[in-house]
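Purpose: get a first structural picture of the assembly so the mutagenesis plan has something to point at.
Setup: four entries, given in the order below. No constraints added.
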Amino acid sequence: MMGAERGRFRFGLAATVVAVALGLTVSACGGSSSGTAAGGSGPVTIRFMSYNYGTPCCGAGTQQLIDEFEKANPDIRIRPEAVAAADVLTKLRTEIAAGSSPDVVQLGWSKAGEARATLPLVPVQDIPTTTEWQTGIDGIYPNILKAVRNGTTGKVDIMPFSVSVPILYYNADIFRAAGLDPDRPPTTLAEVKTAASAITRTGKQGVYVAVADSGKSDYLTQSVMNSTGGGAVNASGAVTVDSPRSIAGLNAIRDLVVSGLQPKVSATDAQAAFAGGKIGMMVYTTAAMSAFEKSAKGTFDLRTTAFPSFDGSKARPTYSGAGLAVFGKDRRRQQAAWKFIRFLTSPQGFTILTKTIGYLPLRPAIVSDPAYLGTYFQQNRHLLPSLSQLNDVTPYTYFPGNHANQAVVALQDEAVTPIVLQGADAASALRATATKIRSLAR
Amino acid sequence: MIAVRHVGLRPRVAVAATGRHAAILIVIIGLLFPLFWVAVTSLRPANDLFSTSPIPWPMSVENYRDAIFRFPIGTMLLNTAIMAIAATLLQVTVAIGAAYALVRFRPRWGGAVVLLAGAAVVIPPQMLIIPQFLIASHLGWRDTYLGLIIPQLAACGLPILLLREYLVDIPTSLLEASIMDGARPAETLRLVVLPLLRPALAAVSILVFVNTWNEYLWPTLIAPQVNHTTIQAGLQLLGNQEGPTSGALLAAAMITTLPVLAVYAIASRRITHAFLQSGIK
Amino acid sequence: MAGVTLEPTPVSPTPPAPPAQGGCGVRARSGPWVYSAPAILSLATWVYVPMVATGVASLLDWDLITPARYVGVANYRRLLADHDFHRAIWQTGWYVLMMLPLATVVPLALAITLWLRPGRVSSLYRALLFLPVVLAPAANAVSWQFVLNPLQGITNTVLADLGLPGPGWLNDPSWAPVVIVAMTTGKIIGLNTLLFSASLSAIDQSTIEAARVDGATSWEIVRHVIAAQLIRPVALLGLLCVLLAGQWVFTNVALVTQGGPNGATDNVYYRLYTYAFTFFDTGTAAAAAVVITVGVAAGYVLVRLAIGRVRHADAPTAG
Amino acid sequence: MTDVMRQPESAARERGRVPTPPAVVAAAPSGGIELRSVRKSFGSTPAVDLPALSVPAGSLTVLVGPSGCGKSTLLRMIAGLETPEAGHIHIDGQDITAARPGERGVAMVFQDFALYPHMTVAANVGFGLVLEAKHAGRGALPRAEISRRVRDVCDLLGLGDKLGRRPRELSGGERQRVALARALVRRKPVLLLDEPLSNLDAGLRAQARAELIRLHREVAGTFVLVTHDQAEALSLGTRVVVLRAGRLEQAGTPEEIWRCPANLFVARFLGSPAMNIVADSRGRLLGWRPADAIALGVTSPPAAPTDAGEVFEGEVDVTEFVGDRRMAHCVGDHGPWSVEFPAATPVAVGQRIRVLVPAGSLHHFDAQTGTRL
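Result (structure tokens, whole complex):
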């Protein structure tokens, strides 16, 4: 019991705490102050949330695009914000919940469905005038524009940007060692199997179809299901992951796993293994191209070919990558966002994107035009097989309801991953998951 | 378990001594091997990452170049250090105040404060994270140091409890003696309590620092941007890219580790001593 | 006569000043408040207000963006019927069971070994053991993932050279949680070895010498002298570590497996995070938070009771 | 004030030894304490309840009583470490009931000495002065003066060569002297000592007692000392205040309370062995000290009782040899009593003995109230 003494208290401790707190307030960096400028004149700053920005693979290219845009448009400043690809939806949603939505977002296609259903997306086609829009999209593969359209409104509400397609990468050295002709790569799944078993006999791994992708995107699952005549969602919006045709698609993959032609590993591990020359073939997105090229340089002969077809039907791969979505609230910022988007997707923008990051150019004309990518494609031929696929890429489908992303996660985690990693029975796994997805849609 | 058996049963037998060393070394190697291997691998060229040779030859700094020049790893490390140090200082300062108030003045409501602090230690942080996020966002603290640091005060319960335990061990008569000497409360704290508490403060600070340094969830939410976030959240960005960037990732992991290793190499004796002297209860 | 006198005069006319606040004497009025205000404010702002808010949110259907809707206990009903949540609870229990010995027995054995033979080597060992604690979890995760790469990681390469089949580690549902535990305990072993060493250093060396003079073997010393004095810190640290481990496991799961493969590494904390920040089902996440907190509190009370019992049972040996 | 310490020259000269007692300044000593209706309780049990008590300036007043009698609480209330629930405390006529401990002109020596372990002897002793100087701001004691005063007081207490040591490097006696030095250096009119000798071992304690008495003489301040040891109280104090259960039992010079214990409690509390108490034929209680009895015949038949006292008879139950004396514990008709003989006196267990207690050595108490008659 002490302290009868009363305190003419000299601040000491409390003062320190307050001082520390205040000091931090003063010295704290930036903060999200950009959300304030509503209208008026002067330069407008828009926020660009990108999963390429600030990364070793693609950061420099993105920065170059921003620099050139700002040079051409001195009244618009771009504030890039980096996020992890898998976290885009999370960050976007927390930003919006925190009352400060970014203006332009590089949004993965697998997340577009849920973003459309639950977030205040500004349809990109609605921002410019019709003529402006027409000039903006002039020359883009019509099929791409068709594929990315919003199924309900029929409008392009998210601008196609980094569109990738699944292709078959193969290691020509392993092909030769296995007695296969690297100039005649497999075009059907049956041929893939034959090649894979020849490769496994040499002690290497045969093939890896990365359906259980690390970003929890279902673009390859959909591509496989489409290619066997099924699909994740049918034309009327019903969930069809457990339809016999869809099951047949994943069964084909399971077949590879149980017969030992495909290693039971995650896509990340397989990716590293293919880059390390341990796997003969890999079905994976074109987005991995530059990374694979880098690893293969000086170690093996990397080649690519189109996504294989399944049991006689036509190959119907869908696309992955990201589009550019607009969330800015006021008109002025939306206009600025549109200008930025138009620049990013212009022939000039794509010349930079393709050269620095390896994204597929969305305009066939610039591939051969020496003013743009003509010379580049003469030296870098790996991307060419995938370009041909852009003509018949199928639309990406979205699960219905407000929990589309949750449904995709469920599909990938609870059905596709067990099939790939444990050779689980495709039919029962897909049926159980379909029930869950349907209940989420309600 | 192995260690106890060897130590205990035949202490004077040389075999036991060897066994003891072996057991400890096995644990140490088991814990540190991944780090060692990553250190070796990070120096290999990108196309030779999975070589099994323990010597990184041919050697290449390409991975480090990628990590340093194409990724803001320095900023992230700095952010992490600022966050961890500031949050530790803040938490420990706040805790000293509370512990001192509880012991020096013995207020009637002291029991309630101890209870509140104790419960705060037990509540899983995930339970609080959504409201914390909304509060911090509302204050405009997203992607700021303030946002990274201040809400970590939620964890001040543990240092309060620990420091209070130590403070209780200081003889009451010392505090009273300082009062008789005419010291004001702040002077008693600064001139008598804090010097006596130094080893305990070091140990508690280290404990808090380790927890803060290891914090992952909060930075990913409150400071998602690459230039504002911490290394824990930032390495995710590298790992999450399309295409394999293992080389850069490994180099980044090493760069993250090196300053810690350096500080640790200098201060490990102090750190362990702080713990040993304080005799944490 | 006496300088000190008992005066017969009655109570002084001035009424006694009432400085007392209550039964236990008078305190400075502002002192304790000023010093504890930062702590009380911190806890209120960042723990207790959020806690109440979470409690309220658990009764809402809310995605953080569209206006919230009151749904009563629907979230709880849905959560308690959710198989994913059940699995996460069992998995969390499994983690705790795996962690407990690794958080107590192993570091205790290491600490005792190092303490019985103090010296330079022991200091070095202790320093090396503590090293994983300060490593960034992200770097730690990267290292483990890389070493355990099933196709070309050094572990499986060596196993293959020994003619052993290398498991899929993080790709294998039965191995993945083990790897997560291993990744996490690296930190816990280091931290607890140091904490136990600290507890041990408080033991008077002379009691050990006395026991040695009495002819006690090292094992007997450990059993009777050290064990008796360490029961309390061991039990409490075990408890603390289970709490911390939950967080560190969470970090590793979030960094490495995201709960997979096939939900094998899931746990309640990660599940809560998933509800909250992957599915943006704030209501369910809040309900899960409430359920978890109640569970942790119950576990805490049980452990406290168990400690009381253990201490009671061991009191005679303590001497 | 304690001007004794302003003796730098002589102190420096005789560094390391207790200096010769300087002339005590004859000015009226200050530090008189008045307590009025002071009350304090812990929970429902009253700790201190004193209608009035005064401690004269310049006295060495010892508060004594069994543990829990409230003596420490009383001391701490004077110090300002506890605040009374009711009543007022005055020092030198000023009401200091609500003053802060540092401002009421008191210094204190704690039972465990409470030395700051992280400070040297010099820093320990000078701590209060340094703070005082700091608080005073301009016009404060200069640093040189502080260190001079610290040196002087340490010299006075024989600590001159220990200034740079830390408490853990000192012996128990040295620590006690540091604690004293720390209290004395501030030259407060009142010095409070809370069981200052209880942490010393027996040999040192006798020496420390003498030193304390000398110190009190030299310093000429008011000392208030708390002890539970009645012998210490009697030997140290110029005034003794006996407390029980928070109430005053008796206050006076040691001789007064030894000769005329005000009640049964005081009578029993003082002296070792304790006073014999037996009931007499008139229903009163008779008390006498074992040493005051005169043997009337141990082996021979009893002599006739005289008017000059009271004769007691009993059978020896236990004998104790205590150096030059021998104690006999007897069972008498009215109960047990003890008596002290010269060591040579042959007393055997089982023997019947008779003793005479001179009338002047007899104390009479009321059987009901215990008060002295």
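The CA atoms of residues 203 and 278 of chain A lie 9 Å apart.
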